[in-house]
Amino acid sequence: MLIEFKTKNFKSFYEEMSFKMKPAPKQTGLDYSILTEKIEKKEYKGLSTSVIYGPNASGKTNIIGAMETLKSIVLRGNIDNVGYLNTPNVAALNLELIPNNTVESSPVDFYIKFIESKLLFEYHISMDLGPFMSNNYKRKILLEDLYINEKLVFHRGDELEIGDLNVIKDYLVNELSENINSIITVAKNNLNNLELFLTNGFKNMFSSKVVSILNDWFDKKFIVIYRADALQVIDTLENPNKKTIYIQKTINDAAKMFGITSNGLGYIYPKGKADPKLVSIFKKKNHRVIPAEIFESYGTVRFVNMFPLIIEAIMNGCTLIVDEFDASIHPMALMSIINLFHNNDINKKNAQLIFDTHNPIFLNSNLFRRDEIKFVERSDENHFSIVYSLSDFGTSKDKGVRKHEDYMKNYFINKYGAIKDIDFTSIFESLLYEQNGVNINENNQ
């Protein structure tokens, strides 16, 4: 369960950006959106969903990109560039594209707080990547912290400090207690400017079990879809028999409820290729198949590609982050999916859904809490982005937001910000003037 994510100096977010998935103080209503996890004697709470609004180029996708970038750094264990990851998020592969392009040089920071396997993890890394597009810059990890259950496990700065390891005593390597001082000395002497201590020294010398829990969460439970048009069938789809054509019943049933134009949908496993391909199936033609993107609508194909992610999240308690989750999908289908995450009888493993959108239909007090509705706004002066939630306005004074207000109406009259008044008329007036030598404004006088 994700509690909070922060980044600093990532693209348009030059100042620290905090994306919180914990309930705001004094918020009431829609309590089915609240998830709870108990660790020892303390109870932690999280939000089951969050929706992000803002105009184009405000920085909405940068939030998702920052999350995926941290995920990729942790899983590869270093701050080198890589070429083997399958992602459209180029900044996650080439880290020189991360820093804000208007600032000469400043550290890039990531912080994440989440709960997995009854452990509360807080991981923070600060990196000197140089200025934007500095390909040959000598990168360096400046700071790296790991807290578990609110207690320091290690701090890496100019020196390496090992905290009180009693908090993870059941996860430590067997030989550690007898050789702790010498192991710490070896760890200090083997720090590498480009390598994470978390997934290298700490994993090898102190606790591979803790790092395995953390890595598995990033790898399997922190599902980030960075760009809507890049959504494809994911590797959670398994065909145990590797038949030539494989019909996954749950997905096929969901597709029929959503609406398809063929008799059914399935997956074909081409020889020599690992990735299954979505196909339309025609029973009257002796189960002939053609690629689904030829016969089905874009919305149908996108829904079927996305539905395994929904299953994965709900059944395994994942945090699912999707760029433009609602693209080409009917609002009724979207509402049904959102309600699954809000349903305590279905969402038993504390799954979470985070998405950005331009669709105002979700600005509804009966669907989302005020702390679940986020806005991203980008300054016209310095082009820096900020994030805030509807709950940040409070409930009193002129700018206060009360629970039963018309959120959609107020958004469009610019009560909350994060919206732009766009009028292309002047562009076409100029084009017509260039073409005909006629000033439209003069003709209208």
Describe what you observe in this structure.
With 445 residues, the protein is α+β, with helices and mostly antiparallel strands. It folds into two domains: 1-227 and 323-445, no CATH class; 230-304, no CATH class. It contains twelve helices and 19 strands. The chain has helices spanning 60-76, 90-93, 180-189, 198-205, 208-221, 249-258, 292-295, 298-316, 331-342, 407-412, 425-436, 440-443; strands at 2-8, 17-20, 34-39, 42-47, 49-53, 108-116, 119-128, 140-148, 151-156, 160-162, 222-225, 245-246, 264-268, 277-282, 288-291, 319-322, 352-356, 373-378, 385-389. A seven-stranded antiparallel beta sheet has the order 2-1-6-7-8-9-10. Strands 11-16-17-5-18-19 form a six-stranded mixed beta sheet, with helices on both faces. It has a four-stranded antiparallel beta sheet with strand order 12-13-14-15. Helix 4 runs antiparallel to helix 5. The protein is globular, with a radius of gyration of 25 Å. The termini are far apart. The model has no long low-confidence stretch (mean pLDDT 88).
